[in-house]
Predict the 3D structure of the following.
Amino acid sequence: MLDHLSGTTRSSVTGLLLPLADRCLLLPNVAVAELIGYQHATAGPFEPAWSLGQISWRKQRVPLISFEATCTGQPVIGERARIVVLNALGDSRLRFIALLVQGIPRSCKIDNQLNYVDVPLLPLERAAVQVGEQVARVPDLDGLERMLMEAGLA
């Protein structure tokens, strides 16, 4: 995924900044299938705190994840909560993953000269990069998929 962001095959790529409660994630826009309004999902009694349950999207059941909870253990559902449906990357039977965000994603251009920032990274963050005035984190989407598979949620 870092290859997509660093533009190894192009001079620039369109990215999306996904607002979370305490940080911003950066993804290539091709990773996002759709932005939808927040829907309540109920997790089962034995699901981890980062799993918010399943949502209904295009006549499918899609697992909903709180990225904040994968890092801190506490999900955050703010007033401006939305859901970003991501295209799954791996070879699993997962086709889509829903990710809770705290607002509307912003589009940005990422050129082939990413400026990496030396900040502490959390387990599911692959890198931190400077995007304009903001430091954004590049999430480990493969890691999210593995986490869902290992928890039996996919």
Summary: Residues 141-150 form the longest helix (10 residues). The domain at 2-150 is CATH 2.40.50.180 (OB fold (Dihydrolipoamide Acetyltransferase, E2P)). The mean pLDDT is 89.
